Each structure stands twice: as structure tokens, then as C-alpha cells.
Predict the 3D structure of the following.
Amino acid sequence: MKHIPRKRFGQNFLTDQSVLGNIIRAIDPKPSDLMVEIGPGLGAMTRLLVSALGHMHAVEVDRDLAKHLEKTFDPQKLSVHQYDALQFDFSGLLSGQDKKLRVVGNLPYNISSPLLFHLTQFVSHIQDQHFMLQKEVVERMVAEPGSKAYGRLSVMLQWRYHMELLFIVPPEAFDPPPKVESAIVRMIPLAQPLPCDGAVLEQVVTKAFSQRRKVIRNCLSGMFTENELREAGVDPQVRPETVPLEQYVALARRLTERPHR
């Protein structure tokens, strides 16, 4: 099939066979796995996965590509869902099965962060996630406090997942080649994330990083007093990118436990 990549879907198709092989080895699919691929495109990775799995699912927003996949693959081996992954209910794939979902995909650069946050809704149903993303996004995901890449994405994802940047994928591995490098990331849900209300943590972290150049006391003014910051272990004079996850969680818990007036 000759498919013209669509910019609005952020389509860049992985064609390098050695890179595809490295990704499959990293995923290590087993016949008993319940797996879903997001954005399979022309099915380059799908073909390799299907050969190792008894059956898998694919979520593809592009109607033409979804039809191509349905024609190319045996429906007994591949269930195609022509759907926007940002709106897709991934828990619906479990259908009473006593197993967790393995999620893989070459995520479009233009929706990668919203999609990662959408998937956190289903984290209790997920065994692991292997994604190809823009390298800069993966660096933000795995960044440690004190680095320029550390921010809202780092804190919110590290609260729920153990993450590892596995390897870099160069632009020439794709058709058409993107203007940036990509990277493969492995995400494994934490069995016991630090106890905290996720919505409140999101509120605190979003406010903290809304003014990165200011000290945390100024960023969170109106939400916490200087004394409250100190009681949570946070130095009021530091910048938000130096505050570790544990201290953001402590702030969120303090906000949750505060008496309503």
C-alpha cells in the first residue's frame, strides 16, 4: 500500500529492520500476552508482534490505515480498532480476562504527552508500556531533579511508573525522516506509588512549574505559606526543578488534609 503520511496525525513510519528487531527484543512478546499497539501505521512492528503472539489489538485513528490493516492481517490474529487513542477505553480490551495489558507503539509526537496522561487512567490494568517517542520527551519523562528537563511530566509520570530510556532511534530509520531523534522508553507501573491524591498532586505540580524561573515560595504563593513548605521538607528558596517527587507528594498530601474553611 502506498500511503502518504498525514501531518495532522504526526505520521512517521519506522522502516529500519534492525531497529524494529531491537524494539521487539526489548518488548519480548509472549504468546499468552494481552497486547495492544497504538498507531500501528502500515504494520511494520505489528507484523513482528503478531508472529510472536496468538492475538493482539491495534488502535489506529487513520481510517485508510485501519482498513489496510484489516485487509492485511487475519482477524483471528489482529483486532483493529479505528479510534482516536486519546478517547479510547483501554480497559475495555480486558473483557474479564485475568491478565494485564501490555501497551506498545510509535506515538505521534503531536499527542505524546496527552496520550501518556490518558493512559495513566488505566495504569492498574497495565503490565508495562514500550513506546517510541521524541527523544526530548523521553528525556523529560526520566529526568531527575536539578536537570533542565525535569518538570511536570517527570513528576507526574515518575509518581506512577518506573521508567527507563532504552536506546536512541535516528531520523533515517523512518519514512519520512522526522527532524528530531527518537527514543524507546520502557514504563512499568509501580506496585505501590507514594500515597497521594493524583488530581491534587497535578494541581500542585502544574502551579509549581508555571513559573520555572521563580523560587518555589513565589510559584506556590496563595497555595502554601513559607512555614507549610518547610514543614513538607521544601526549602522555600529553591526553584521548582530542584524539588524531588517525594516533596511534591508531601505538599499534595498537606493540601488534601487541610481543613476546609
